[in-house]
Amino acid sequence: MSKRQNHREEVFVKILDAAEVEFGLKGYNGASLQHIAERAGLPKPNIIYYFQSKANLYKQVLDQTLTGWNDLFDRATVEDDPAEVLDSFIRVKLKNSFEKPVASRLFAMEVVSGASHIGDYLKEDLRPWFVSRVELLEAWMAAGKMRQTDAASLIFMIWATTQHYADFEAQVLALSGKDGYDEDDLMRIGDAISGIVLAGCGLTKA
Fold first, then answer.
1. pLDDT > 60? residue 170
2. Contact between 165 and 189 (Cβ < 8 Å)
3. Which of 160, 165, 108, 159 minimizes the C-alpha distance to 133?
4. DSSP calls for 98-142
5. pLDDT at residue 54 above 80?
6. Residue 10: what are its φ and ψ, rounded to 5°?
7. Angle ∠(130,131,136) on CA atoms, nearest 5
8. Model pLDDT, residue 154
9. ∠68-56-66 over CA atoms, to 5°?
10. What percent of the chain clears pLDDT 70, i.e. is strictly above it?
11. C-alpha span between 18 and 24 (Å, rounded)
12. What pTM did the predictor assign?
């Protein structure tokens, strides 16, 4: 990769990171390209050059969030061990919630408000992915690799449980008497969620 390509990539990531924080704090309507540019330490025209509009930048931020959440599960096939895949999926999702809570809350805020800015994305991009993952789970069930259950509800349950630690971070920390999450929490909570989900699916991790 050339120095110019490296620079473009660095600027692209810097803008996305700044936009994630700005949108997370102010929502879509409250955020502005000017404030995102200031947070990124870049001129506003750079934002427009890379993303064209606030709406497109917002969708890119949400898409990046979903890709980070689901990447591991996205690559799983019927030949894989469902216990290994689901355990890893849960732990990666939980780690993202610990490390990038703003991104999770931003997505939750968008969906709760009616998904007016990403409705087409949910139907045209996320739904085909979701259907394919339901089909994978059902294939594992048909092959006797895991207990019969409602595959769609299982995915929703994993999303909801892991994202709870980001979306309701203030409540979790207050009730736990903690100021923040640490590595021990990541391991302990990951073990608990994974153990409950795998047991419900008739699975055990080797």
1. yes
2. yes
3. 159
4. HH-HHHHHHHHHHHHTT-TTTHHHIIIIIHHHHHHHHHHHHHHHH
5. yes
6. -65, -45
7. 95
8. 98
9. 15
10. 97
11. 10
12. 0.84
Tens of pLDDT along 84-104?
A: 999 999 999 999 999 989 888
Taking the C-alpha atoms of residue 115 and residue 124, their distance in angstroms, rounded to an integer, is 13
Find where tokens 């971070």 sit.
Answer: 169
Q: How far apart, in whole angstroms, are the C-alpha atoms of residue 34 and residue 53?
A: 12
Count of residues making up the chain = 206
Which position has the higher pLDDT, 146 or 55? 146
**Which residue, chain included where needed, has tokens 């810097």?**
14
Assigned token pair, 2: 């050339």
CA distance 192 to 153: 19
> Residue 155: which residues within 8 A CB-CB, separation 6 or more?
130, 133, 134, 137
